[in-house]
Specification:
The complex is a heterodimer of chains A (494) and B (243). With 494 residues, chain A is mainly α. Chain A is built from 21 helices and 10 strands. In chain B, helix 3 packs parallel to helix 5 and helix 5 packs parallel to helix 6. The chains are: A mainly alpha (494), B alpha/beta (243). Chains A and B meet through helix 18 and helix 19 of A and helix 2, strand 6 and helix 3 of B.
Chain lengths: 494, 243
């Protein structure tokens, strides 16, 4: 009997082990991109290249910036994304003196990461200005800007923050004009409308030619090389690495600029531009467009609802539970409310970034962030309601012999319900709005088309996320209206 | 006839060295209405709260129906009806739900609840159609009568009334007094009425207790107190309010 039990256990363990090994073997390669078009295209090129070799991939495109991608890679949440040598050495490693791929690899090897052979182009930063402005002001080199303190310089947020961006550049060239930040995708529109004079650009941007912009010469050689290369986890299987390496030196700057322009101006999808390139290189079969607008809309909306509903249910349970625990202790109640208020002041993208080391990317950190944002309205409304109930009613409830639980169920909770409900409703609407940011950490939802649309400066695409999100918010209001009428007795409604 | 409530050398203070009750000893008769009359701050409400264990004495003993107040006050409180100024009806419940709440929690059968509820409505002369309205749809006097129904639902042996009639206008009040006296007789319940209104006390009570500054100024049958005030304070109080 005992022997049989042990044998059964062993069998189960072995089966589980085999199953685990199998899933590890067949687990898709998770490919990420940052949230600008070139990164999407390169990620899609790699994804289709792997798929052409029969390797399963999972796309986590549009993550919100360099650090989110890198942290996710270190945490093993993703397996690879395309990084630039200059970004790796300066923004990530803080070692600007290291520029060669081999030397960089020595610095990241102990984290289980490796940069593979560069793809073939240098996408360095450039300062761009409309040709007309350049001519009227006599701007040829970056240093010429120093004489024109009234130039409206607006640069992307990342460029504004990075040591190798504006802070270093302004020192190197002695530039002291005021500068502000803007979403990279919007900068070209702003410069085309003439509302800004100078912005940062990537030297492979398709927009440079389209908007007739002049790239100011970097005569001091300030900007380092930014060679695009796949940054991967070294635990990827050999065939995957081989497939990635087959792309080495295949994309030069002109080709990259052309692909960027195809996406930005011809409004073609990343997938079709990537496929056209791979077919031309003989690295993949021709394939048709997959997915359509309605299906994507449905998928995004569903994911959006899943994110907000999960967070909201958690916040309702936790928020109301916590309120019930602390409302009889005014000091604790106040401390809890202050703490939740404090959470509210953390900018959402910062909160998401802070959560990555703890929870990685994807659903979990997005839900947690939304949960934290939903807490305050629920908690504050519930606590206020519970602590402002007519003291006579509380005295009566106690004196007539209601047990503490009965007091809660028959007096405290129903009397607080309208205010509690208003709090939940506020939290729901805020969550639906905030959840669009979840796309930055690969959690999907209606933020996906918004983030991609921002990267491409594609209003159409932005609206594909923004309109359903607005509709969801209105529907939520209506649903809560109905729920309120159904749940809350007429005598407590006003 | 035993006493329904007995205070023995009771002391109580909320702030250090400021006793609201100073060595109070008092016996209240069963089956009658006792009125405790005093000005605000005299300690009369504290006396009431000691009876249903909302407050505990610092020193001394409170006996209710000859028993000390038990550790777990829930069962005990349900045997004591409680009615307050302004009725204190729960606004989210209908009048029926307010009155029958305790009976439902006690697990009474539906038909027993309905029977008792209708009997109480009748005793209080409340029209049947008010049953399923909410308290705020009722006049102050009607609310007060619903409050009395709630206090009486479980047929308590003792009724505590904390200035229940003071928010009702004087004309309505006369009607409620009459109802209360009849119901009191019919239900055979002992009542403890706290009030600052001597006229109300004289109309409703058989036993009168006058408290001042945390002590009993005089206690006895209403007629005795009226005829023989124990001291100047009582005499002044009677003269001031009754003439």
């Amino acid at each position: 009997m005992n022997c049989r039990a042990v044998a059964l256990l062993l069998l189960a363990a072995v089966t589980a082990g085999v199953a685990l090994a199998e899933t590890a073997e067949t687990a898709p390669v998770v490919i990420a991109s940052k949230n600008f078009n070139e990164s999407y295209i390169l990620a899609e090129v790699i994804a289709q290249r792997l798929e052409a070799d029969g390797i399963a991939v999972e796309r986590r495109f549009g993550l919100g910036g360099t650090l989110i991608c890198f942290d996710a890679l270190v945490a093993g949440e993703i397996d690879l994304y395309v990084e630039y040598t200059g970004t790796l050495s300066q923004a990530i490693l803080g070692s600007p003196e290291v520029t060669e791929v081999d030397a960089l690899n020595e610095l990241i090897a102990d984290r289980g990461l490796a940069m593979r052979s560069p793809l073939g182009f240098n996408n360095t930063y450039a300062m761009a200005t409309p040709r007309a402005v350049a001519e009227s002001r006599g701007l040829e080199r970056i240093g010429d800007m120093a004489a024109h303190g009234d130039l409206k310089v607006v640069v992307s947020h990342e460029f504004l923050e990075r040591d190798d961006g504006w802070p270093g550049l302004s020192v190197a060239y002695g530039l002291d004009m005021p500068v502000t930040g803007i979403e990279h995708g919007l900068a070209y529109q702003a410069i085309a409308e003439g509302s800004i004079d100078v912005t940062d650009a990537y030297s492979t941007d398709g927009e440079l030619e389209r908007y007739d912009l002049k790239v100011l010469a970097d005569d001091l050689g300030y900007f380092p090389e930014y060679l695009a290369a796949p940054l991967v986890r070294t635990d990827l299987p050999g065939p995957v690495l081989d497939a990635i390496d087959s792309l080495a030196d295949r994309i030069d700057a002109a080709r990259m600029q052309a692909m960027n322009a195809e996406v930005v101006f011809a409004k073609r999808s990343f997938a079709s531009v990537a496929n056209e390139f791979l077919v031309a290189e003989g690295l993949s079969e021709v394939r048709g467009e997959t997915g359509n607008l309605i299906r994507a809309l449905g998928r995004n909306t569903l994911q959006h609802l899943k994110l907000t509903a999960t967070a909201l249910v958690g916040a309702v349970i936790f928020g109301i539970g916590l309120s019930l625990l602390v409302f009889r202790k005014p000091m604790v109640a106040r401390a809890v409310t202050y703490f939740c208020g404090l959470l509210q002041t953390v900018p959402s993208i910062a909160l998401l970034a802070l959560l990555i080391p703890l929870l990685g990317i994807g659903m979990a950190p997005a839900v947690l962030a939304l949960f934290l944002y939903s807490l305050l309205p629920i908690l504050r409304n519930t606590l206020t309601a519970l602590t402002t109930i007519d003291p006579t009613l509380i005295r009566v409830a106690e004196a007539m012999g209601l047990k503490p639980g009965e007091q809660l169920r028959h007096v405290y909770l129903p009397l607080s319900a309208p205010s509690m409900f208003a709090g939940i409703r506020t939290a729901a609407v805020i969550s639906i709005g905030t959840a669009t940011l979840a796309a930055f950490i690969g959690a999907g939802g209606l933020g996906d088309p918004i983030v991609t649309g921002l990267a491409l400066n594609d209003t159409n695409l932005i609206l594909q996320g923004a309109i359903p999100a607005a509709v969801l918010a209105i529907l939520t209001e209506l649903v809560f209206d109905g729920l309120e009428r159904w749940l809350i007795p007429a005598s407590l409604r006003d | 006839m035993s006493d329904c409530v007995r205070f023995e050398n009771v002391w109580k203070s909320y702030l250090p060295d400021q006793p609201v009750l100073k060595d109070v000893s008092l016996a209240l008769p069963t089956g009658a209405t006792t009125a405790i009359v005093g000005e605000s701050g005299s300690g009369k409400t504290t006396l009431l709260q000691l009876v249903n264990a909302v407050q505990e004495p610092d020193r001394g003993t409170v006996l209710v129906f000859d028993e000390p107040i038990p550790e777990d006050p829930i069962r005990f409180r349900r045997q004591i009806g409680y009615s307050v100024q302004g009725a204190g009806l729960f606004p989210h419940m209908t009048n029926r739900e307010n009155v029958t709440l305790l009976a439902r929690l006690e697990g009474w059968a539906e038909n027993k609840i309905a029977e008792r509820f209708e009997a109480l409505l009748e005793e209080m002369e409340l029209p049947e159609e008010l049953a399923d309205r909410f308290p705020r749809e009722l006049s102050g006097g009607q609310q007060q009568r619903v409050g009395l129904c709630r206090a009486l639902m479980l047929s308590p042996r003792l009724l505590l009334l904390d200035e229940p009639f003071s928010a009702v206008d004087p004309i309505t009040r006369v009607g409620i007094y009459e109802r209360f006296r009849e119901v009191q007789a019919q239900e055979g319940v002992s009542s403890l009425l706290v009030t600052h209104d001597m006229r109300e006390a004289v109309k409703l009570a058989q036993m009168l207790v006058i408290v001042a500054e945390g002590q009993v100024a005089q206690a006895g049958p209403v007629a005795d107190v009226l005829a023989n005030p124990a001291n100047d304070y009582v005499a002044e109080l009677l003269r001031g309010q009754l003439e």
